[in-house]
Amino acid sequence: MKVYDYKMEFGWEDHNGIGEKLIQQIIKGEKTATCALKEEYSEQELKEIYESVGKTATVVDKNGNPRCNVRLKVVVETTVGNPDPRLVRGEGYGDNTKHFQEAHRIVWNELGVKVNEGTILIAELFEVVK
């Protein structure tokens, strides 16, 4: 597998296997989107993400091991209160916006991050490339 300079990391310490679960969903084509809080990005990081549309990234685990490659199709800003339907579907929740919101709030709460309806998310939509 070719490894690209642009990387997307899934997993963190004490994550109870969530990172590996997400990576397996990506490999199977079930997970085609991810998101993070806009406030976590610097201006330079945001610029780099938007410039990465159309480029290929290597998905790595929390130890930096390459697992698969994806092509970034689109980056979109959306909110927790009204998430873009493509993000909800791409995260594996079908059309169930409420479930998407609840699941993500649980994770952010566990990380000590407070979110509200207006919290802005950066959503990355991608496809697996062989």
N-to-C span: 8 Å
Shape: globular
What's the CATH architecture name?
Answer: Roll
CATH class: Alpha Beta
Instruction: Write down the secondary-structure element order.
Output: EHEHEEHHE
Q: Specify Rg, calculated over alpha carbons.
A: 14 Å
Helix content: 25-40%
Protein name: ASCH domain-containing protein
Domain ASCH: 16-130
Give structural notes:
The protein is α+β, with helices and mostly antiparallel strands and 130 residues long. The protein has one domain: Sulfate adenylyltransferase (Roll), CATH 3.10.400.10. The chain has helices at 18-27, 43-51, 85-90, 97-110; strands at residues 7-9, 33-37, 56-60, 66-79, 120-129. It has a five-stranded mixed β-sheet with strand order 1-3-4-5-2. A hairpin with a 5-residue loop joins β3 and β4 (66-79). The mean pLDDT is 94.
